[in-house]
């Protein structure tokens, strides 16, 4: 590793906080911090409705081109609905009454990704002393790893739907009668994390009870899906798994460009975390497709984790206008997925 490369790696963890930026982010957004049910409910469940309708159409279509077209629509719509799991981890438990239950019933359990798989996991990623460290379940120093790690990171996501099906239909029921297996499944295969060393702690109290019912629902649904092949044949299930694989890969690509992944394991300041994260603001029009539900403003989200997704665009406009293009805030803004993929890929090719 050259001296320049070493400085480049360390600078992220050594970045001092920009007090003016942090203060402006809070003060300029005080009036837009409430999650609005009139936006959350129709956005999420109309997306799910479109997704499921397109999925049924793809299954029933006799035309390959139409099947592919409907499959793309289903993948994008269900992707948007699924990513409301991110909002569930941040909104206050008393906000949006009934939304968590409805989301799990109509999105989380049908897609075998109930909300417990992200709740009490994603918040660790936002912990001041955990972000970018080995204790962060959602961080790998991908920019500092070998070039082959990037395609492997993306392509392994294609197997996620099959893995989730096996988990809920086979491993969870077996774990109910084999306690050591139950422990392994919970610790290692019950969180939407990318850090292979992350081990999840046992659920307790009200959260534990919620996990039980969500696990039961997901397992019953997974068994029903497998059983349906004896009546409907394999096409419906395989088509759904294929569409869900597209969704999973798209989400993995979004995850890959959500951060620069340049931290070397040391704890970071809030400003350091911000600069290691990514905003893809307008005028780009395609970002809402691959980073929906406000995730095109991922760096801003790390400044204001509890800000509802529908307020992020306005928050970005206010903060950017107030601080200007020469500010630290501007340093996390990028032009799109392709430039970001190129930047991270080039980082992996630097000899260290």
What this model shows, in words?
59% of the residues lie in helices and 0% in strands. The protein is an all-alpha fold. It folds into 2 domains: 114 residues, no CATH class; 164 residues, no CATH class. Helix 8 runs antiparallel to helix 12. The longest helix is centred in the middle third of the chain and has 28 residues. The protein is globular and about 65 Å long. The termini are close together. The N terminus is likely disordered.
Q: Characteristics of this structure?
A:
2 domains, globular, disordered N terminus, FA_desaturase_dom
How many beta-strand elements? 0
The overall number of domains is 2
Give the N-terminus to C-terminus distance in angstroms.
Answer: 4 Å
Order of helices and strands: HHHHHHHHHHHHHHHHH
Q: Give the amount of beta strand, in percent.
A: under 5%
The multimeric state of the shown protein is single chain
Helix content: 55-70%
Rg measurement, Å: 21 Å
Q: DSSP helix count?
A: 17
Low-confidence stretches: 1-11
User: What's the story with the biggest beta sheet?
Assistant: none
Structural class: mainly alpha
What sort of overall outline do the alpha carbons produce when their principal axes are compared? Answer: globular
Average pLDDT figure: 93
Outline of the structure:
GO terms for molecular function: oxidoreductase activity, acting on paired donors, with oxidation of a pair of donors resulting in the reduction of molecular oxygen to two molecules of water. This protein is mainly α and 352 residues long.
Structural topology:
Layout: H1 3-14, H2 19-27, H3 37-60, H4 64-82, H5 84-88, H6 99-108, H7 122-125, H8 149-155, H9 160-177, H10 179-189, H11 205-232, H12 235-256, H13 270-275, H14 287-290, H15 298-303, H16 312-323, H17 337-348
Helix pairs in contact: 3-4, 3-6, 3-12, 4-12, 8-12, 9-10, 9-11
Protein name: Fatty acid desaturase
Transmembrane segments: 38-60, 66-86, 98-118, 148-166
Organism: Sphingobium subterraneum
């Amino acid at each position: 590793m050259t001296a320049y490369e070493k400085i480049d790696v360390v600078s992220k963890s050594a970045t001092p906080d920009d007090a003016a930026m942090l203060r402006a982010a809070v003060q300029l957004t005080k009036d837009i911090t409430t999650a609005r049910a009139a936006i959350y409910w129709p956005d999420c469940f109309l997306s799910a409705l479109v997704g499921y309708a397109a999925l049924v159409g793809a299954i029933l279509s006799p035309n390959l081109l139409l099947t592919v077209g409907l499959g793309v629509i289903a993948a994008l719509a269900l992707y948007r609905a699924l990513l409301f799991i991110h909002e569930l981890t941040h909104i206050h438990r008393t906000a949006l009454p009934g939304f968590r239950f409805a989301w799990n019933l109509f999105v989380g359990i049908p897609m075998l990704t109930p909300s417990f798989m992200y709740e009490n996991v994603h918040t660790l990623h936002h912990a001041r002393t955990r972000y970018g460290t080995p204790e962060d379940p959602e961080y790998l120093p991908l920019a500092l790893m070998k070039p082959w790690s990037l395609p492997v990171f993306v392509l392994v996501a294609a197997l996620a739907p099959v893995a989730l099906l096996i988990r809920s239909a086979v491993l969870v029921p077996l774990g109910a009668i084999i306690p050591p297996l139950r422990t392994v499944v919970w610790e290692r295969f019950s969180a939407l994390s990318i850090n292979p060393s992350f081990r999840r702690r046992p659920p307790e109290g009200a959260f534990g009870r919620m996990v039980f019912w969500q696990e039961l629902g997901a397992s019953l649904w997974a068994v029903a899906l497998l059983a349906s092949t004896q009546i409907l044949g394999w096409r419906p299930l395989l088509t759904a798994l294929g569409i869900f694989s597209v969704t999973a890969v798209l989400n993995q690509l979004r995850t890959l460009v959500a951060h620069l992944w340049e931290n070397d394991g040391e704890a970071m300041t809030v400003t350091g975390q911000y600069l290691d994260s990514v905003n893809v603001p307008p005028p780009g029009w395609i970002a809402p497709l691959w980073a929906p539900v406000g995730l095109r403003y991922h760096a801003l989200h790390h400044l204001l984790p509890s800000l509802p997704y529908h307020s992020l665009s306005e928050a970005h406009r206010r903060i950017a206008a107030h601080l200007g293009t020469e500010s630290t805030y501007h340093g996390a803004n990028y032009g799109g997925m392709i430039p970001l993929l190129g930047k991270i890929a080039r980082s992996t090719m630097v000899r260290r």
